Amino acid sequence: SNPIEIESSFVSRQGDRYGLVEAMKDPQDEVNKRGSKALHILNVNQTMGEKGAVENVNTMKTEKAKPDGHIEVTPGALVDGRFQVVDQTSELVAHLQMMQEAKSEIDDLSIDASLSPSASGRSRALEQHDQSVKIGRVFDRHRSWKKRIYRQIWCRMKQFWDEEKWIRVTDEEDAAEFVGLNQPVTLGELVQEHAEQTGEEIPPEMLQDPRMSQVVQVRNNVKELDMDIILDEAPNYINLQHEIFAAVMEGAKASGQPIPLDIMLDLMPSVPNKRQILDKLKGDEQAQEQQQQAQQAAFEQEEASAQLDQEEQRMNIGATEAKMMRDQVETEAQAIENQMVKQGLEQLLG
Fold first, then answer.
1. For the whole model, what pTM was predicted?
2. pLDDT band per the 50, 70, 90 thresholds, residue 99
3. Which of helix, strand or coil describes residue 10?
4. Which residue among 134, 270, 282, 292 sits deepest, i.e. has the most Cβ atoms within 10 Å of its Cβ?
5. Residue 214 CB neighbour total at 10 angstroms
């Protein structure tokens, strides 16, 4: 196929190619003309008077053109209205209005970039969408041209990429994935993979076979692959992030539930070194959690020690009470024995 891709915004009947600026030339010429006429009217004025109202017309014009000029008229000319300066305000206003209409026509043919910097992402997206409709055909053709360019790039890859290549494919910063193209696969590698899948052992004489190093297959052959090319227009990501963050904060405020610091920081847009800060917060949380665990273990050990002390005290008290009871029993038994001996002696002596 032809590797050259050409696209034009518009093509005239005569085959001339042109863009959006071509339609803005005439309105711009009118803006320049009306601005020049308005400036000329501001710099010069017309006068009107009867013959003889001034002694010399040329001298009057020269003096009137000077910033500090002085015009002399015949006596009574100003009172009688025989000399007047023509009021050109209406003509000046007409030129300015027509200049503004020409500017509006230019704005209708293009996208107005004068959007409020403080506008939310949603409002900016709506304004840009409404304005992009005016030149939607141009952007459609530009997208079509870009897609054809990428298709041509893929065709050149299929045409010239015949060696093994590794391509890094990833959608996230910290998750890298590599895809091999035109990977040669030997017979030995196929046999090894089959053995790993089935659990069979490879005979040693087969491993020594020189045919094991022969390339029998090419994986991910570029010439046999196809690619889906999807162009995604990037939104105003920063403003959308601000809007999402504001919505989350308002929702949390309304519900009365606090948001963890790491989640809040992750949602905050335009924060430099956000990943390093989150990692540090996680490290601090882990250290704090370990410290809490150590404190909890020490507290549990102290409680266990106190319980042992209490149990030992209870055991000591029990032993003391048992000894006292034993001593009391022994004392009572001795007293009974002494009483019996005394009674026996009294009976013998009596």
1. 0.50
2. very high
3. strand
4. 134
5. 10
